[in-house]
């Protein structure tokens, strides 16, 4: 009985292993940072956004007024931020990292224009990060 229970727990542990590895790889250190737009083909004012290790994306807006906090995940190298519209459904915001991981590009599904983001040394919207 104890041997079967041990084997079952070992099997469950093996099944859980890929999920914990995936979770750790899902938020690479290079991505966990504060970013701001350095160019925007639509001419939108530059906002400040943060990707956190806990899987949260925080957008502070262009005046550092906290606009939104949403979950994000990585799939096939792209960063997907999921915004839930009440009584509607989810909208995904997708960022594609450059090969050197120095920039993130967002392409507007509406205008087809790009905005390019670069990492900031600290978050100007958070007093505790300076």
Quick synopsis:
This protein is α+β, with helices and mostly antiparallel strands and 130 residues long. It is 19% helix and 42% strand.
Estimated helix fraction = 10-25%
Rounded average pLDDT? 83
Structural class: alpha+beta
The count of helical stretches stands at: 1
Radius of gyration: 19 Å
Number of strands: 8
**For the terminal residues, how far apart are their CA atoms?**
58 Å
Quickly name the level 1 CATH class: Mainly Beta
Provide the number of structural domains.
1
Classify the fold: give the CATH topology: Lipocalin
What is the H-and-E element order? HEEEEEEEE
Strand order of the largest sheet: 1-2-3-4-5-6-7-8
Shape: globular
SSE blueprint and pairings:
Blueprint: H1 2-26, E1 33-40, E2 48-51, E3 56-61, E4 68-75, E5 78-85, E6 89-97, E7 103-107, E8 114-120
Antiparallel strand pairs: 1-2, 1-8, 2-3, 3-4, 4-5, 5-6, 6-7, 7-8
Model description:
The longest helix is centred in the first third of the chain and has 25 residues, at about 1-25. This protein has one domain: Lipocalin (Beta Barrel). The chain starts with a helix and ends in a 10-residue tail after the last strand. It is about 20% helix and about 40% strand. The protein has one helix at about 1-25, and strands at about 35-40, 50, 55-60, 70-75, 80-85, 90-95, 105, 115-120. The protein has an eight-stranded antiparallel barrel with strand order 1-2-3-4-5-6-7-8.
List keywords for this structure.
130 residues, globular, 1 helix
């Amino acid at each position: 009985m104890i041997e079967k229970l041990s084997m079952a727990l070992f099997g469950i542990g093996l099944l859980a292993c890929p999920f914990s590895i995936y979770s750790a790889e899902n938020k690479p250190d290079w991505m966990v940072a504060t970013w701001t737009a350095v160019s925007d083909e639509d001419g939108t004012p530059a906002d400040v956004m943060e990707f956190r290790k806990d899987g949260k994306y925080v957008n502070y807006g262009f005046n550092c007024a906290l606009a939104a906090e949403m979950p994000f995940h990585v799939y096939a190298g792209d960063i997907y931020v999921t915004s839930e519209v009440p009584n509607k459904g989810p909208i995904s915001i997708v960022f594609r990292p450059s090969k050197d991981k120095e920039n993130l590009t967002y392409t507007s599904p509406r205008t087809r224009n790009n905005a390019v983001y670069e990492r900031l040394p600290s978050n100007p919207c958070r007093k505790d990060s300076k």
